[in-house]
Amino acid sequence: MLQSGEADTPVIGRPRAVPERGFWGSRPPSPGGSESSAVMPAPPSRPKSRAGAKYDSLNYWRAKRVIFYKNGDSYYQGLEFRFRPGRDVTSLEGLLDKLSQRLDLPRGARFIFSMDGERKESLDELVDGHSYVVSSYKTFKVLF
């Protein structure tokens, strides 16, 4: 016959039975009920300010991509230039300064023309995806 102490000892080859409360014991119950029902409350929402209203339009963030050619040079393949108006380049003079550094023109970049010879006098006149001619002189020479 088995003594009362012998029933709790494991028998070789048989796994020991795990008690109901878990192998390592149990945790005390949470004060809110079951452990899975404890959910953090949502943080309070902040009022939205309209201070950033100028940033709502995607055109503010969108860069313009234009191609510039040298005046009278039909062999020049063109310079693709990307900029964000108002951020990278604030005026037409600033754009002409950057183009002077990149293009080898005799007196620097001073004038911008459309492909049909119309002179551009402000940065807003440049259209995304179009091509323009950069010149050191006021006269426009047809490329082709």
Structure description:
The chain is 8% helix and 16% strand. The chain contains one helix and five strands, in the order ββαβββ. The protein has a five-stranded mixed β-sheet, covered by helices on one side. The longest helix is centred in the last third of the chain and has 11 residues, at 92-102. The model has no long low-confidence stretch (mean pLDDT 78).
Quick rundown:
The chain is mainly beta.
Write the layout of secondary structure elements.
Layout: E1 64-70, E2 79-83, H1 92-102, E3 111-114, E4 119-120, E5 131-135
Parallel strand pairs: 1-5
Antiparallel strand pairs: 1-2, 3-4, 3-5
Mean pLDDT: 78
- The geometry reads as elongated
| Number of separate helices | 1
The radius of gyration over CA amounts to 38 Å
**First-last Cα distance:** 113 Å
Spans of at least 5 consecutive residues with low confidence: none
What is the beta-strand fraction?
Answer: 15-25%
Question: For the largest beta sheet, what order do the strands appear in spatially?
Answer: 2-1-5-3-4
> How many β-strand stretches?
5
Structural class: mainly beta
The helix content is: under 10%
Order of helices and strands: EEHEEE
Major sheet summary line: 5 strands, mixed
